[in-house]
Backbone:
C-alpha cells in the first residue's frame, strides 16, 4: 500500500485551466465549506479567463453575501467586481427547487396540462417538500444550465455546490428515489380505482392502505384520491421524461468533461464521509479530481506543543501573578495539539485512499464574506 506521503497534491488551477473541464461538482457532507469552495473556484476561474456560472443550493445565502449580491434566485446573475482583463466572467444563482420543478412541467406539457398540474395540491406538496426533491432538482438544473451553455455559448464552466444533505451520497441517489416514488407501487395503487371501477375496488384494498391514505389526506388536505388521480393522469406523458432526464444528467456526471471535488473538514466523521463518496464515485465511474480538506489548523514558526507547555510552566513558576506570555504559550500549545490532530486525521485518510489527490485549506482567521476572501481561498486551492 502507498504511504500517506505518496498521495499526490490536488492542483485545482490545472483543472480549471483545462478547457475540456466544463463542469466542476463540489460535494461532501454538510458544514464542510462546499459553498465557499465553489465560490472561490468560480472567482478564480473567471479571473483566469473562464466564463463561469456558479449554482448553489445553500439556504444560508452565504454565497450571495460573499459575491457581493443582495440575493440569488433561480436565474443566473452577473457578479460585479471580477477582474475581467483575461476575458472571463462570473454569473451566480441559487436553486429554487419548486420553480425548477415548475419549469420541467411547463417545458414538457401542453399549457393546459401544465396549468392543471401546477394547481394540483398533490403536485404542490411533492414539488415543495418531498424528500430528495432538492437533490433531484439540483441535477435537473445542472442539465438545464449545460444545455443553455451549449445553445447560447454563454458559459464554458459550470461550478455546482451540492445540497447540504444529511449524507453527501443523497445527491447521487435522489433521482432514483424520486423516480421510484413517482412510478412506485403506492402511487399505482392509488391510481388503480380509476382504472378498475372506482370506489368498489378502493374498498377492497384493505385497512392498511385506507389508513395510509387517511394520513396522507390529512397532511395534504382535500380529496387525496382525486388529487393523486388528477396529478398522475395529467403527468402520465411525463413519467418517462423524468427518468430520461435523470439518466441524461447521470451520464453527464460520468463524462470526461465533469470533475468532482470532494470537500471535507479535518474531522473524523467528515473524512469518513469523504471516503464513502470517493468509493461511490469510483463505483459509478464518475471522474474524481481530488479532495479539499478545509479549515485545517496550521501554526506559524517551529515552536512545538511540548516546548510551549514547558515554557508556560516555567513562566508560571517565575512569576507569582498570571502572565500574559504564559497564557499565549498555552494557547499556542492548544492550537499545536489541534494541528497535530488534524494532520493525523488527514494522514489516515491518505493511507486509506492511496493515489487520491488532496489539498489542504488552512483555517481562516476571519469569516469569508467578500471577493477578496474568496480570492485568498482560491490561491490556497491552486496549490
Residues:
Amino acid at each position: 500500500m502507498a504511504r500517506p506521503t505518496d498521495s499526490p497534491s490536488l492542483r485545482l488551477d490545472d483543472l480549471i485551466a483545462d478547457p475540456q473541464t466544463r463542469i466542476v461538482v463540489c460535494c461532501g457532507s454538510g458544514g464542510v465549506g462546499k459553498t465557499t469552495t465553489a465560490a472561490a473556484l468560480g472567482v478564480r476561474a473567471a479571473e483566469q479567463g473562464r466564463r463561469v456560472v456558479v449554482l448553489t443550493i445553500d439556504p444560508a445565502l452565504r454565497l450571495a453575501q460573499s459575491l457581493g449580491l443582495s440575493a440569488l434566485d433561480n436565474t443566473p446573475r452577473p457578479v460585479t467586481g471580477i477582474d475581467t482583463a483575461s476575458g472571463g466572467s462570473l454569473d451566480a444563482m441559487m436553486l429554487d427547487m419548486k420553480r425548477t420543478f415548475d419549469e420541467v412541467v411547463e417545458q414538457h406539457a401542453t399549457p393546459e396540462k401544465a396549468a392543471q398540474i401546477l394547481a394540483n395540491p398533490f403536485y404542490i406538496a411533492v414539488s415543495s417538500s418531498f424528500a430528495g426533491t432538492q437533490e433531484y432538482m439540483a441535477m435537473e438544473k445542472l442539465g438545464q444550465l449545460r444545455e443553455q451553455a451549449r445553445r447560447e455559448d454563454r458559459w464554458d464552466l459550470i461550478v455546482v455546490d451540492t445540497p447540504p444533505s444529511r449524507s453527501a451520497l443523497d445527491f447521487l441517489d435522489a433521482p432514483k428515489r424520486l423516480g421510484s416514488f413517482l412510478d412506485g407501487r403506492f402511487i399505482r395503487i392509488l391510481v388503480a380505482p380509476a382504472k378498475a371501477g372506482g370506489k368498489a375496488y378502493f374498498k377492497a384494498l384493505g385497512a392498511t392502505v385506507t389508513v395510509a391514505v387517511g394520513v396522507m389526506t390529512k397532511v395534504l388536505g382535500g380529496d387525496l384520491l382525486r388529487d393523486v388521480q388528477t396529478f398522475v393522469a395529467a403527468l402520465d406523458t411525463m413519467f418517462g421524461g423524468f427518468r430520461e432526464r435523470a439518466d441524461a444528467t447521470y451520464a453527464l456526471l460520468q463524462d470526461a468533461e465533469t470533475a468532482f471535488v470532494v470537500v471535507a473538514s479535518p474531522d473524523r466523521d467528515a473524512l469518513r464521509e469523504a471516503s464513502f463518496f470517493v468509493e461511490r464515485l469510483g463505483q459509478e465511474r464518475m471522474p474524481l479530481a481530488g479532495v479539499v480538506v478545509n479549515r485545517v489548523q496550521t501554526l506559524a514558526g517551529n515552536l512545538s506543543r511540548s516546548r510551549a507547555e514547558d515554557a508556560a510552566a516555567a513562566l508560571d513558576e517565575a512569576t507569582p501573578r498570571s502572565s500574559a506570555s504564559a497564557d499565549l504559550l498555552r494557547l499556542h500549545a492548544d492550537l499545536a495539539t489541534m494541528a497535530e490532530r488534524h494532520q493525523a486525521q488527514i494522514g489516515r485518510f491518505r493511507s486509506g485512499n492511496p493515489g487520491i489527490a488532496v489539498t489542504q485549506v488552512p483555517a481562516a482567521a476571519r469569516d469569508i464574506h467578500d471577493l477578496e476572501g474568496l480570492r485568498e481561498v482560491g490561491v490556497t486551492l491552486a496549490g
In short: The longest strand covers residues 288-296. The CA atoms of residues 54 and 159 lie 5 Å apart. DSSP finds 17 helices and eight strands in the chain.
